[in-house]
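User: Fold this; tokens only.

Assistant: Input:
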Amino acid sequence: MSPAPAAGAPLVGAPLVGSGARVGEGVSFGAYVVVQEGTVIGDGCAIEDHAVLGKRPRLARHSSARGEVAPLELGARVSVGAGAIVFAGARIGAEVILGDQCFVRERSSIGERTVIGRGSVVDNDVQVGARVRVQTNVYLTAFTVVEDDVFVGPGALTTNDDTMARHDAEAPIRGAILRRACRIGGGAVLTPGVEIGEEAFVAAGAVVTRDVPARAVVMGVPARVVREVPERDLLERWR
């Protein structure tokens, strides 16, 4: 074993904290953490190895994500996994868990007690509610809205541009809307602008090209309604 560092010696991999950053009481840092200037970290947060907080966006000239970017704000008792990158301008609610290597961009918001899984992406201008469970390797594209208590299975993805970049600069970008307590199965694809109704269920691997009614179960390519979510499966029975 290597000898312990002498009293007062700097720790190997100590966090790099930029000017004007505010760090609350009881915050723990892993090795080689970077906290950019102006970032606000609430009390009791745990920031693991190699995380980057408050990264400034660097955008292509044609990007639609331009605008003022405020400092990153983490609420109390947020956990940020190893290698995660959270941009300036994001707002992270209390007791959120951001998994290892996840990526959260500017002007996004994540509500309290939500979990974002390993390697998942929350793009710019995404709104995620409270108590949402986003599993591993999910992509929430720009301008997606995810309401409270939604479940998004591993590898699911959303899209926001029907033309795949061949449109006028003024053309709107439309993310998906996931209403309260809906469930999205693993590997599902949601096309631009679709709305998944409250308590609806999208089966694994489905490709959703049109709105899904509340409590509908859909599956297939393209997804079609096959039945209704039964009373016994509604969220209120599982709280």
